[in-house]
Structures are given as C-alpha cells and as structure tokens.
C-alpha cells in the first residue's frame, strides 16, 4: 500500500477523481495468444480475483474522501476494468444525489438524518449503512499561534456561536491578543458542519463571519496563513498538515488514535460511514465487488491516511450485511 500520509501531505484531494483504467498486456510475455496472456496477467495482478467490468459512482463527505479515494486507487490495480467515480460535494450534497438515484454509494461523516431517510423511502431507494472508520473532529490553529493550547467545550461554544458581537482572543483570556478571531469552517452541506453544530453549538447559529467551504484544503490553507485563524475538520487533514497547523486539545484531551478510538476525545470523536444503494449492490456486479473490497481494506486505509480503524468485528459485520444482499 502506498504511503498515503505522504501523498496527502503533498495534495490531499481534488473535488472529485475518476479512477480506473483499461487492462494492459504483459510486455515481457513471449506468448502469441494476446487475449489469453492479458487475462492471466490481470488475474495475477488482482491476486487471482475474478475479472469484473463496469462503472460505480459515489459522492459525499470530503472527510471520508481520503479513505474512499485511496481505496478507489488501490482497487483500480485489482480491477482495472472497473471505473469508479468519487465526488466530494459534502455529506448533505452527497445524500441529495443518492436520493435522486445518481450514485451507487454516499459517503457521510454523520449518520443519515430522518428526513433524508424518509426521502429515500419515498424515492423507493433501499440502502445499507456501512461504518468505515473513526474520526476525531480536530480544532486547529496556525503554528504561528503561540497562545492557544487548550480550549473547553464552553470556550468553543462562546467562540463559534453567533451572538451579534465581534469575537476577540482576549474575550477568552485577557492575556491573549486583543485581535479578532478569524473563523474557517466546513460548508453547510458538510456532515462535519452538522456534527459540530449539534454537539458544540447545540443547533444555534454558527458565527456569521466564518469562511465556509466544502473543500477542507481551502480551510487548511486559510488557517495556515493567519495566526489569528481557527477552524475545524477531520483528523486526517490535521495529520497531513501538522507541520503548519497546531491541533488544540479540548478539555485537556488531544485527538490521537487512542483517544479517538476510546471515545476519551469527547464529544468530537465520531464514526465515518458510507451508504450503499441495495439495488446497485445486487444488480451491478462492479458495485458489489467494489464495496466488498472497500470493507476489506477500509481499516488499513483509514490508518494509512490518518484516521482510526474500527475493531475487526465491525468490518466483519459489514461484510456479512453485504453478503446477505446477494
């Protein structure tokens, strides 16, 4: 498996990527039977897996994207005749496409909402929820910020809630700079936005001066450039940029593999999901094969890109749920 943390540090993700390629022949083969040799080469490359052809489409959370797009790239080596497309329009945007029947799977950084489930039922779309990994939603500042090390949940709420005032660092601590705080946050279609709004702001309005973006790389770049900036996004984006960003501990607990998996990093630890269209899984061999590959490799890829793998029994349960759809 590639060094995905290194790859992400260079450039985490584009807004979407299409991965998949046509099969190639073994140039070193002396056989004159090109078709037979190509099939054997593909079989060897895929680890004796059956050759699958087709297309699979997904969309959704930019937080989940490092895991899923890494899996897509690895899968292209195993099944080069399957083209998998993954977009990153945010959890909410992904569910909109999923409801419309435009995608085979939808990545989400929060559980599906009741109204989204109701819309899927109305549209006649049956689906299965699969957990992929754990994330610790990370609050970060620039490395140039030398005053913030730890914040409480109440501090976060005071900072991020819209109350009609301009927010300054000195509002939290008179020894901190008398400078306005510059906010960066995921866009309103993001499951990360929804999660933060629910567990920190308790569904009150987010500060109106915040720069919002569905692209977490935009948030990273904005925070890197401003010592007065603060923002939040998935743990993997912090890990990939920790040379230029500083993570803030919450109530004395810093996000890391141990605190995220144990839930000690509360309330910002959360599971990451993908939701798959049952009809696509049963009627499209490529969709089924890709989802099986995803569940078999999600734990390793999660760790590779900076998230936390689930216990193996959770992946086994997902695979059993998938098998039951055949």
Q: Can you give a write-up of this model?
A:
- With 326 residues, this protein is α/β, with parallel strands linked by helices.
- It has two domains: 4-134 and 271-323, 3-Layer(aba) Sandwich (D-Maltodextrin-Binding Protein, domain 2); 136-269, Periplasmic binding protein-like II (D-Maltodextrin-Binding Protein, domain 2, 3-Layer(aba) Sandwich).
- It is 39% helix and 20% strand.
- It contains 13 helices and 13 strands.
- Strands 1-3-2-4-13-5 form a six-stranded mixed beta sheet. A five-stranded mixed beta sheet has the order 9-8-10-6-11. Strands 7-12 form a two-stranded parallel sheet.
- Helix 3 packs across helix 12 (285-305) and helix 12 packs antiparallel against helix 13 (312-323).
- The protein is elongated and about 65 Å long.
- Mean pLDDT is 88; it is low at 9-47.
- Residues 23-63 are annotated as: Disordered.
- Residues 50-295 form the PBP domain.
- Belongs to the PstS family.
- It is a lipid-anchor.
- InterPro entries: PBP_domain (IPR024370), Phos-bd (IPR011862), Phosphate_ABC_transporter (IPR050811).
SSE pattern, N- to C-terminal: HEHEHEHEHEEEHEHEHEHEEHEHHH
The overall pLDDT average reads 88
As laid out across the biggest beta sheet, the strand order is 1-3-2-4-13-5
Structural class: alpha/beta
CATH superfamily name of the largest domain? Periplasmic binding protein-like II
What's the number of domains?
2
Q: Hey, roughly how much beta strand do the residues contain? A: 15-25%
Backbone shape: elongated
Question: N-to-C terminal Cα separation, in Å?
Answer: 29 Å
Question: What's the Cα radius of gyration?
Answer: 21 Å
Query: How would you characterize the largest beta sheet?
Result: 6 strands, mixed
CATH class of the largest domain: Alpha Beta
Please work out how many helical segments DSSP would assign: 13
CATH fold-level label of the largest domain: D-Maltodextrin-Binding Protein, domain 2
Contiguous low-pLDDT stretches (5 residues minimum) are: 9-47
Secondary-structure arrangement, i.e. CATH architecture of the largest domain? 3-Layer(aba) Sandwich
User: Which bin fits the share of residues in helices?
Assistant: 25-40%
> Total strand count, please?
13
């Amino acid at each position: 498996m590639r060094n995905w943390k290194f790859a992400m540090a260079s450039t985490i993700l584009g807004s979407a990527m299409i991965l998949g390629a046509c099969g190639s022949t073994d140039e070193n083969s002396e056989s004159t039977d090109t078709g037979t040799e190509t099939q054997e080469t593909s079989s060897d490359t895929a680890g004796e897996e059956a050759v699958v052809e087709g297309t699979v489409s997904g969309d959704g959370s930019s937080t989940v994207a490092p895991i899923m797009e890494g899996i897509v790239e690895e899968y292209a080596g195993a099944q080069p005749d399957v083209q998998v497309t993954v977009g990153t329009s945010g959890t909410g945007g992904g569910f909109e496409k999923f409801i419309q029947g435009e995608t085979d799977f939808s990545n989400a950084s929060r559980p599906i909402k009741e109204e989204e489930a109701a819309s899927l039922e109305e549209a006649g779309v049956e689906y299965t929820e699969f957990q992929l990994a754990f994330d610790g939603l990370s609050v970060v500042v620039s490395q140039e910020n030398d005053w913030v090390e730890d914040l409480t949940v109440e501090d976060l709420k005071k900072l991020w809630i819209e109350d009609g005032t301009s927010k300054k660092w000195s509002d939290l601590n008179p020894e901190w700079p008398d400078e306005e705080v510059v906010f960066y946050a995921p866009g309103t279609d993001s499951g990360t936005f929804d999660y933060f709004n629910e567990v920190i702001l308790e569904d009150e309005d987010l500060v109106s001066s915040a720069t919002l973006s569905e692209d977490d790389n935009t948030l990273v770049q904005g925070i890197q450039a401003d010592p007065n900036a603060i923002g939040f996004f998935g743990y993997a984006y912090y890990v990939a940029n920790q040379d230029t960003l500083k993570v803030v501990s919450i109530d004395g607990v810093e996000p890391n593999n141990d605190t995220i998996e144990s839930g000690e990093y509360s309330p910002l630890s959360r599971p990451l999901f993908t939701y798959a269209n049952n009809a696509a899984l049963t009627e499209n061999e490529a969709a089924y094969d890709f989802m099986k590959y995803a569940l078999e490799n999600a734990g390793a890829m999660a760790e590779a890109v900076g998230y936390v793998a689930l216990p193996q029994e959770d992946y086994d349960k997902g695979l059993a749920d998938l098998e039951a759809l055949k």
